[in-house]
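Risk register update: the risk of archive-format incompatibility is retired. Evidence:
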Amino acid sequence: MTSSEDKNKNKGKKRSASKRSPPRTPNNIPIDAITPRKPKRQRQSSSQAKSSRVAGSVNCEHQPNITPRVQRSGHSNSHTNRGVPMSTLQMERKREAKEAAQKTIVDQNVPDVAIPRNEGARSRADEISGLVVSAFESYVNLAPYHTRLATQTSSGLAAMQSEKPDPSIDIGVFSDECKGIREMIRGKGRGRGKGKAKAAHERDMYPWVKALFSLIAEAICEADRILTKPPTAARPSVRQIIPFKHTDRTPEGADDQDRIDIALRIEGDTSSDSPCRGSMKPDYSRMLALIEAKCSSDEPEQQAAYAQLFKYSRHIYANQHDRRFVWGLTVCDSTFRICLLGQNRILSSGSIDVTTPDGRKALAKWLVNMSLCERDRLGYDPTLYYNGEEHRWEIKVHDDATGEFKVYEIISCMRISDRVCGRHTRCFRCKETEASGDVDEHGKPAEPREILVKRAWAITAQNSDDKSRDEVSLLREINNTLKDNKDLEGKYPTLLAGGVVRITDENGETFDDTVKTAFAGLSEETLRDVGSRTQKGMAMTPIGQDIRMCRSADELIIAAADVMEVHTAIRKQCNILHRDISINNILINRNGPGDRACGMLIDFDCALRIDDTTDHEARSEMTGTFPFMSVNNLEASKVIRTELDDWESIIYVLCWLGTFGANTDDEEDMQAGGKPLRIYKWRTGDAADVAEAKRIDMDTNKLFASNIVSQFIKNPSYVHLKKLVVDLRQKLFDNLKVSPKGRGTLEADEDLFDYFSPVPEPVNSSEPPEKEPYWDDGCDENEFDQFKRRATCAGKISDALLEAIKVAHEGASTSQRSKRTASSNISITGQVRSLSLNPEHTSQSTPQKSRSSHASTKSNITRSARDIRDERKKEAEYCVRHNLVPDALVAEVAKPRDDGLATFTAQIATRVCESLEAFIHADEHSKKYAELVKWTGMKEQSPESAMYSPISAFFTYVSKAIDSVHVGIPDGGSYSRACVILPYDITDRNPIGADDDTRIDIAFRFVSRNASDAELAQRYPGKPDYKDITAIVEVKREVGKEAEALKQLYIYNRNLYAKQTNRRFTWGFTICGSVVHACVFGNDDMFVSKPMDVMEPNGRKELVALLVNMAYCEEDQLGYDPTIRLYEDGGVKEIDVYDQESRKTHTYQCIGPIMLATRNFGRHTRCFLCVDCRDKSGEKKVVVKDAWAYATRKKDGNNTVDVRDEVVIMQKIRDKLAGNKELEGKCATLVHGGVVRIIKGDVVEEDNTDTAFGMLLPPSPSSEKREFRARRRMAMALDCVPLQNVDHVDQLIVAAADIMNVHTAIAKTCNILHSDISVNNMLITKLPENKVRGVLIDFDCAKDISKVDCKTRPERTGTYPYMRINNMEISSVKHTQLDDWESLIYVLCWPGTTGINQDDEKLFDRADGLPIEDWQGISPEKVATSKRDKLQTPDSFVTNMLAKFLKLPGYSRLRALAKPLLVEEEHSDEETSSPDSPVDQDEEQDDDARNPFKRRADYAENIADDLLKTLLKEREKALGRIRKRYKKEMEAPF
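Archived output:
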């Protein structure tokens, strides 16, 4: 018989064998829960796809302590991927794979994992390796090539081993491909391509790589036959590991269209009754290992190969239910790396270069070991196997309690493992293989029970005796504790057997299945890095159904109520906290009497035993699935986890099912709507993004209803579900038994006021009702973290939530009973339902696009997002018209200060220009930068979006050219370049950190030259982030649109100041067509350079020179502050404060920001809570304030003290008021302070507008007249909170009286007027017995009237809503105390109409319209006119202002206080203008004399004294009411 005939005969045998016997892997077990997206064959019916879920089927995504910070995509059919496009899933998978590749651990011992444990097998492997390596080397060194096929006989191998091998003998059945092996090894077929050529080169690698493995496999088989005594031609005793025939294909079993390069399979396996032979196309269910080929051995290519292995391996886990870990190989040029893809990390061997003998030996030895090792060494689970005698799949479960093994027959796989890293949770529907001995109701032997077997790799403690998070131990405890409670029966799993999976290999050796035993052979260091996991198995009953098999929304409510009832019982009776409420862990149990459904809580993998000894860090770790994780959990907060986190999760579960449907039928209704779903933000992005979205959506009932509940299924049956989630949200986040500080979800500085919870109109009463103690009164009164406050009373809130969901349970049960009895109404119900689904009748309410960092200042409460956006546009238009400085010398700002460096950068710029010009005028261009030619050679207008890529390519080219040229210059080693300029990958996006929905065109980031790729990937994501952006580019397609571009830059730049706490000024670029303008935004002006046209060589030269200078200049020239040092994540680490008294610099460690700059122009005031670095106790906290305040220029030789210097003013106040016990603590106390000093080159300069921007303008008389600001920084002793933290009106009155008392004392004792009374500058200190003390801060605008002529008003100072009328009109009336008293009236009017605190603010309805809205305009004249109209007479004040105060308890006293303050001023004016008063006739003719403000100014001190007396009287009354209220609270029972 010829060789070809023999081959065909064998081929036929392979086909017939595969038909008769089951496959080696258990992929033919029916998969109930998830099926491949596009399977080649339909292996199950649609009814099977809807079959039951199991009591242990869980999400394998979350891991304590190592839960990923980004969403893991999972299988395309998983619950959290409903409606998500495959393109989005692919992006998530690529991102996850890239991150995993960057964390790859390299260990030279990875191939040793395949070494057989059996000594005989190891000896046999060594013998075979010796023969194979010898034959392989002889083959490689064979001189001539022959194309004829070699006969596969033992003599062929023997001839190869001879000292003089017969050149006519060639092993391998693919001689042409084998020839490619030798060419590759000898270096003739190697090369590197790009683009399509690169892809073609990779495909050229496939034949020789395949042939290499086939060659070694044939050699292993022949060596085994030779060593077998006597030699036999029977089937070899070793596995034959060969590649699938087809390469570059999408394998069967994939849920996407990704194509793998090469895959290995087992051709012969002695451990199975039937070898898996003969498949042509790759099939994930039969793969042993993946091979990813790259044509280059560079590090980026290697990382890409790791990432692709990771991405593809998920499908092997999903299709092979007995897979414990996966092998893979990367082939980069001629370098192989052997990889293990396990539960936590990618493990990779060192480089194995097959062009060297050592490399070929290592690869061959590994393949020999793989051919002979035990099956568990290949990554398979021997406890899940096919029983050939019984013709069924079986699984073993080891019971730790009895030490016995129980065997169960597998019916189907109900939960697959579809991720590479994680617990690899799988669940199988099984039945007992042995009769239980029970009998049925007829006395006959009962049928074997159906049970669930769950397998998962759980994280285990280093201490094996620690059972605080062992799921088996926890379930046993729950079973023992709740077994007598019949009400909870069937609502939690009953454990039949469970423990650590124990493997008995072919050698009879039994061991626990852990990471350490699975990866035996790796170094101890690697095993520590991989982490400790143990595979555990459990057999449980009953078997439940997927929660999405609910028959109605009412049944969903019943299930949720049952689950939270048993959750509460487990928490209280067992001290066990579940910590992972999600869709995957709630089932429907239909085994109750009368087909009654009940909910069942499963999966205690993340559960933790809670007691006084529980580690706080363990209770605060991050666990769960993004869409259902609590905000604290997502943010990895230090707030301890309580049952409230699980209650928050059940709300998210109900919202998810309410949006996507409680069953598949209702899901079709969701798809018919076609609206964008806000809830997708709960699964998109990283953990911080999801937490931010949830904080917004859950903050108020209106936000929650508009953003989430409005998008529930449009079906009448979902009404009860909507009411339930709103009620649960209200009781969890806005519980009236919790103090106002513990309500809501948004942080104080990021609160939104667009929506407020509907609250019934309170009863109008002169006296407030008696106040019961809040549940969280035991918490620190200075604690403002709502989640932390609620955690202190978690038990009480949990009881309230349980009561609410029980009420909903009863309602849902009644509704279900009524539906069953009212069968005659089914058709009518159907008609109503159809009508509600008609798009013409469906409410299309789109949620408002609010953002977390929305403008949240007190003065913005009355405005919507649209109002704020319109105002910003007007402000930008005004500033471009009035504050623009054209043709400024912007390039001078970035010019290096060192002369040598300036010369060096000039050389760099010249060479980069030469390179750029040569590239532009070349006939051919590299694909990477070819697009920049489209911009520099643009002959016609292009759409803006089409310009983004060419512009980005231009700046990228210049940056890379700088890097290349730097090395080539002889003096390059003397200078280190500070940074490179790189555009963000993504353009035309709304950046992270924005407080609006504006989209920027292009953003630049300045990256350290020494930053690693891992650091860049972590700190600079593809999407722009305002905390990292250095310059923004605004693009317009037409030349001449510079003004429009500048307006948009102005709007965007405010976010840079808000997110970058060390930013002094900002850079920007406008690009209109081919014309570029560089811009610098200062405190009062926007400086714009001369045009640079990139179509002209000179224009390109100027732009390149600027970019080169920016790359080499110091950080302060880029707008950053070197005296504020940051952490890696952008948070402030340390701040330097120069003290002008001691002339020393003090360093403070920052605890956190208190106030951030949110405007382009102005003082850019920032405040930080800090502690002195020298204070080791950390108890002496200070507030460090940083602001650009107006100042007086110092002439040469003139040492006159600046009368507007806040530091000097604060020093004077501190010294004058020292020893005054009555005023102690009512004013900020200066510790250190002075003008910020920055080291610039070899000199130290004060930071002011002249040193920062003086070089922008040529010297001229006009430049001397420009506004001058000095940047001052002070450390002040303060222990205060914002005024909005008062609990009631009486506290507000006391605070206002204290502040005006110290204000008057400062005016009289120190001759200093504050000049800026506003809500922002009035703080409070909380005192015992519910008392408060008002604190006056911020003397930026203060004036020393002993040194300043108060008859003039050089500038407007203050905030529009609180500014005095005279100040807004820049009147000639002299400045007196009455101006600040007038501001106080406005301050009292503002909280009176909008709410004194966040609780009351939620009762404010913006739709009613308020007169104070006119006080926020950008025109000071219009604001002044509005205030004149409102305050013209006491009657107009009452009608237009006081009548608009909130109708809440206590606000009547605020109205009663505000009116006398105004009347006191009016009355004093009447006295001064009485007929008895002598008046000069000339004065009567003077218009100023008839000005009431001027007349009152002449008697300001007397009027101010009367006002203070009135306020102090009200203060005493308020203190009396506070004492009375506190006494009642103390006497009342808790």
